[in-house]
Amino acid sequence: MEAIVQDVRQTLQNSSDEKTKASSQRFFKEPVKCYGVNVALVGKIGDQYWKQICHLSKTAIFALCEQLLSTGYCEDAYIVSGWLPKLNNEFQASDIHTFEGWIEKYIDNWAKCDGFCNHTVGDLVMKFPQNIAELKTWARTDQRWLKRAAAVSLIIPARKGMYLQDIFEIALIVLTDGDDMVQKGYGWMLKEASRLHQDDVFQFVMEHKKNMPRTALRYAIELMLPNMKKEAMAKDW
User: Fold this and answer.
1) Which of 44, 111, 157, 188 has the fewest CB atoms inside 10 Å of its own CB, making it the most exposed?
2) Collapsing DSSP states into helix, strand and coil, what is residue 149?
3) What is the 3-state secondary structure (H, E, C) of 68-110?
4) Which residues constitute the domain of residue 73?
5) What does the pLDDT read at residue 208?
6) What element of type H or E holds 184?
7) Per-residue CA distances from 5 to 8, 85, 88 (Å)
């Protein structure tokens, strides 16, 4: 299996482009490790290697994924984010603990967090809704990426109109968090929930806007009607 990981990484390295590598850093505040491969090409490379590993057991594929995550390279993490949702039929509720450990150990920027959580963790939660309780536990930790993960793991369910009360509960847990990565994460979650529950999300925002950071508020109301946006952004004197 080590050979597969090395082959994937060599293919990514051979596909790198200095211009892409140089431009990647501008999306992040913290230093990032990137080969410099276009995201679309990373997806194609991931699909290419999936054909070679799809016959393996879930345990073996999880081991490959962890090896790739451990390199610290963004593209390796993107490969993992493309592979894992393909295992959805084999997911078990207890996999949430494996994913939590990976987030704690290997996720170190918003792109890795969102790529991993939007579908992999989001798919798991939709399959096993009891795991939303774990997301609420993540929201209460001191680890920034677990806190962001608690919100962005519900992006797809929120878009589908699911778990509204749980979304509000997670938003309340991190409501006054000072980390802009957390603020943007839960603001995005509320924005997606507003697609099908605009009035409910607006009411939530109006009830809590005095304590909600402006960054989170702007994200939350992005899809709302102009008059709603104006009222939400108005200062209360």
Assistant:
1) 44
2) helix
3) HHCCCEHHHHHHHHHHHHHHHHHCCCCHHHHHHHHHHHHCCCH
4) 1-90
5) 97
6) helix 180-193
7) 5, 19, 22
